């Protein structure tokens, strides 16, 4: 058949089929749930063979060739849609079962007429120019990031998670580049200035897990269990490299061994591989054999804080956990994307727990998850853990604090409800039953119900299918120095009346003694008989163990004894609860809570707790104190923090307090003091500052005053080329010239200026810093107007990052009015984007009531 006849034949078929097209084959943009369900019934045994010719120059086109093999079976003989979200003219040639056909594209799909297909095995060959949207091409390296539905922006494919396939990849790259992919490298063929890498066929993967990276990377390899662990990186700091490489390999191996032991399933993929990406827009991405990781999180100097060390361990354990949870067993549809994330976080917590340091594990879990879960769940835009999804093009909006931080709390409650042994049996059965396949949350619940008498459906409705948290109150009466009545009640912070069934503790503090009782089956209102006849305590603390979830009551008798609470977890839980209650207008007001927290900076010696306290101090100071109040209090607060830093003994604690001082300083003497530290590179005694610390200090100074050539000097100090480029991108946002800042912001309307999403997010934080807000507030309307475009073109975390970096520290009535007017005028905005706006502007909303 020649091309002209094929084109005419296709047009006739399309004209006929459009009149009687089944609902699942109507051409809609994206990948709809109905399209995905239809394709799942007619396609299987999919295999992609892909070749990309990647020029070293990032602005040159990538020529590509693809072969798709699949088995097809359809009685209705409807059109087959192949996903490709790029300009149709990038498809140069299509051959279906050895027959050339015309290229017909509609609404981000290549249309394959059933007349060209046959029952059973089919073969499609496509010559095309690869799309760039998900290739992350930098000056001398690139990496793919296809989650959730971005494989289709690069090559034609069936881009849905339940059509797992085998991928065979070859790459032609510059001869001085290195490459990595999901499969093992089988050979490398030199041809002039280029080389072609051939990789083995992968294990079965969904399209979002297919990945490769190439560029000028250093390569470290460690032999383990007759296989290589390959690690590509671009870090140039020798101290960080020497201090971090052994730790990265050890943490990776430790995680693999833990999950093998816990699940009873050997490592499920053919190879081990990692890539450290500078300015990576995620923390990590779990591509089997080519795990992408944030460079800054991995490479630490020897003075790294406990928080940094824990974060590195958590990151690696999280991504390795995905090999079982998400990669081996993948969600059927992205409405259950939270399942892979909750298990990765929950299992990472287990992998990093030490039997010798149970309190340390509990503290890490508490400080890692609760503040972030609450930050979203307290807002009017809070989403449930499990969210509906009608089209994969909206899947990125499902990600956020709820699935990463509330869901692990929920999973811990489920484990406590079932018992640890029963929970483990159920999860392991689930993994074995659905290995190399797909499953949904109801599939797991059905298995778990076999191991517990508890009513998981009712429990699931409140914890998983609905947003929000409970607000708990209590009443206590004393008679003759003993508790004579003790009752608790809970209500939702908002929404319909419901009860969170959960386990939490109530702790009674006495001189030299703490007596706790556990509530395992909380009701909307209940008496607590076990509290009766106890002696009247010094004070009572709810959720001292941090295992519960909600806004807990505060016994005000705790205030003068707060920093004398011996248990580290209980102190952290108290800090979190005091802050959450302040936001709800209960107990201490913002200024009083700032004073209380600041008074503890000398006494709190645990790094994670000190990090928590200083974070809350910064939040209260910038978000919930009026500018005039800040100006009045600045000098005293600066002095208090500096003196606490000098009093602390641990170098890491001193550094945490130095960073706190750097965050809040405003007075002229403080500015001069920090400038001298930056200029002479002489930090306070026992405070170790490295290049990245002087960079952040330079940014902080540039916000306050137009120091001559400060930013230019800091740029020249930076040696690593990737960090140098990041600094140069952020610099205009810090300029004292409002015209320069305006040009920077206006430039973000163009997609090419937003490609480094991590750096853009940081730049927006400085652009909208409270000290710059009078000049930045006019950008807020445009920021909101760009949101649909940001969601369409950016990676999964960028819409939230875009909004949070812009609105996160505003408190003015005029800024709040901008949000209200926008929401009123854009009622047709997608619901998930409305939720993001409500989530990221919640502090602004609360500031209208809190700021005096």
Automatic annotation (TrEMBL):
Keywords: Aminopeptidase, Coiled coil, Hydrolase, Metal-binding, Metalloprotease, Protease, Signal, Zinc. Residues 250-458 form the Peptidase M1 membrane alanine aminopeptidase domain. Residues 1-22 form the signal peptide. Its cofactor is Zn(2+). One of its GO terms (cellular component) is cytoplasm. GO terms for biological process: peptide catabolic process; proteolysis. Residues 136-209 form the Aminopeptidase N-like N-terminal domain. GO terms for molecular function: alanyl aminopeptidase activity; metalloaminopeptidase activity; peptide binding; zinc ion binding. Gene3D superfamilies: Neutral Protease Domain 2, tricorn interacting facor f3 domain. Its EC number is 3.4.11.2. CDD domains: M1_APN. It catalyses: Release of an N-terminal amino acid, Xaa-|-Yaa- from a peptide, amide or arylamide. Xaa is preferably Ala, but may be most amino acids including Pro (slow action). When a terminal hydrophobic residue is followed by a prolyl residue, the two may be released as an intact Xaa-Pro dipeptide. Residues 823-850 form a coiled coil. InterPro entries: Aminopeptidase_N-like_N, Aminopeptidase_N-like_N_sf, Peptidase_M1, Peptidase_M1_aminopeptidases, Peptidase_M1_dom, Peptidase_M4/M1_CTD_sf. PANTHER family: AMINOPEPTIDASE, PROTEASE M1 ZINC METALLOPROTEASE. Belongs to the peptidase M1 family. This is Aminopeptidase N. It comes from Niabella soli DSM 19437.
């Amino acid at each position: 058949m020649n091309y002209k006849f094929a084109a005419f034949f296709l047009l006739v078929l399309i004209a006929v089929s459009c009149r009687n097209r089944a609902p699942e084959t109507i051409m809609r943009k994206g990948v709809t749930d109905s399209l995905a369900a239809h394709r799942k019934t007619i396609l299987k045994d999919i295999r992609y063979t892909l070749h990309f010719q990647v020029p070293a120059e990032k602005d040159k086109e990538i020529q590509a060739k693809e072969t798709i093999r699949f088995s097809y079976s359809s009685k209705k003989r409807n059109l087959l849609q192949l996903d490709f979200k790029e300009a149709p003219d990038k498809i140069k040639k299509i051959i279906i079962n050895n027959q050339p056909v015309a290229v017909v594209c509609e609404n981000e799909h290549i249309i394959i007429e059933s007349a060209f297909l046959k029952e059973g095995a089919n073969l499609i060959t496509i010559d095309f120019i690869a799309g760039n949207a998900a290739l992350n091409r930098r000056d001398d390296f690139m990496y793919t990031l296809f989650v959730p539905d971005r494989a289709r922006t690069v090559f034609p494919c069936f881009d849905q998670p339940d059509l797992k396939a085998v991928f065979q990849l070859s790459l032609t790259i510059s001869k001085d580049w290195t490459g990595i992919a999901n499969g093992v490298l089988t050979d490398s063929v030199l041809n002039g200035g280029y080389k072609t890498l051939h990789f083995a066929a992968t294990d079965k993967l969904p399209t979002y897990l297919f990945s490769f990276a190439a560029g000028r990377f250093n390569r470290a390899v460690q032999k383990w269990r007759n296989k290589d662990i390959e690690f590509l990186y671009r870090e140039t700091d020798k101290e960080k490299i020497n201090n971090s490489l052994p730790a990265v390999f050890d943490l990776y191996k430790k995680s693999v061994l833990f999950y093998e032991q816990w699940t009873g399933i050997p490592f499920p993929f053919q190879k081990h591989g990692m890539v450290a990406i500078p300015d990576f827009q995620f923390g990590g991405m779990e591509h089997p054999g080519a795990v992408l990781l944030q460079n800054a999180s991995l490479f630490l100097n020897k003075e790294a804080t406990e928080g940094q060390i824990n974060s590195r361990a958590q990151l690696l354990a999280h991504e390795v956990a995905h090999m079982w949870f998400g990669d081996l067993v993948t969600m059927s549809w992205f409405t259950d994307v939270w399942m892979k994330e909750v298990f990765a976080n929950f299992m990472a917590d287990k992998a990093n727990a030490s039997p010798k340091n149970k309190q340390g594990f509990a503290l890490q879990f508490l400080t890692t998850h609760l503040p972030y879960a609450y930050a979203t769940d307290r807002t009017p835009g809070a989403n449930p853990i499990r969210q509906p999804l009608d089209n994969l093009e909206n899947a990125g909006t499902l990600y956020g604090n709820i699935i990463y931080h509330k869901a692990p709390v929920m999973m811990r409650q489920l484990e406590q409800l079932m018992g640890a042994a029963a929970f483990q049996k159920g999860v392991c059965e689930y993994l074995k039953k659905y290995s190399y396949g797909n499953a949904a949350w109801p599939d797991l619940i059905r298995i778990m119900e076999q191991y517990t008498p508890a009513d998981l459906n009712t429990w699931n409705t409140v914890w998983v299918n609905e947003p929000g948290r409970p607000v708990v109150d209590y009443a206590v009466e004393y008679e003759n120095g003993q508790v004579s009545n003790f009752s608790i009640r809970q209500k939702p912070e908002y929404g319909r009346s419901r009860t969170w069934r959960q386990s939490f503790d109530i702790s009674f503090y006495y001189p030299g003694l703490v007596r706790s009782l556990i509530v395992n089956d909380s009701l909307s209102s209940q008496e607590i008989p076990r509290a009766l006849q106890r002696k009247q305590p010094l004070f009572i603390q709810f959720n001292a163990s941090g295992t519960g979830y909600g806004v807990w009551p505060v016994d005000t008798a705790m205030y003068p004894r707060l920093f004398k609470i011996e248990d580290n977890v209980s102190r952290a839980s108290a800090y979190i609860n005091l802050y959450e209650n302040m936001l709800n207008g209960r107990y201490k007001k913002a200024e009083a809570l700032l004073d209380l927290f600041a008074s503890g900076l000398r006494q709190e010696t645990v790094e994670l707790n000190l990090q928590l306290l200083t974070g809350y101090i910064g939040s209260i100071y910038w978000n919930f104190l009026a500018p005039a109040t800040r100006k009045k209090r600045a000098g005293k607060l600066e002095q208090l923090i500096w003196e606490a830093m000098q009093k602390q003994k641990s170098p890491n604690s001193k550094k945490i307090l130095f960073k706190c001082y750097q965050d809040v300083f405003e007075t002229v003497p403080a500015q001069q003091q920090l400038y001298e530290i930056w200029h002479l590179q002489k930090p306070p005694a026992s405070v170790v500052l490295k290049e990245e610390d002087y960079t952040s200090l330079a940014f902080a100074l540039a916000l306050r005053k137009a120091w001559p050539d400060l930013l230019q000097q800091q740029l020249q100090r930076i040696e690593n080329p990737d960090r140098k480029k990041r600094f140069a991108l952020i610099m205009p946002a810090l300029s004292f010239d409002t015209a320069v800042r305006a040009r920077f912001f206006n430039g973000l309307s163009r997609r090419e200026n937003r490609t480094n999403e991590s750096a853009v997010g940081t730049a927006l934080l400085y652009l909208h810093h409270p000290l710059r807000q009078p000049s930045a507030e006019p950008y807020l309307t445009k920021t909101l107007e760009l949101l649909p475009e940001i969601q369409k073109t950016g990676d999964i975390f960028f819409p939230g990052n875009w909004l949070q970096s812009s609105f996160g520290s505003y408190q003015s009535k005029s800024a709040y009015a901008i949000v209200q007017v926008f929401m009123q005028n854009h009622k047709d905005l997608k619901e998930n984007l409305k939720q993001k706006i409500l989530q990221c502007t919640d502090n602004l909303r609360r500031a209208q009531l809190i700021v005096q």
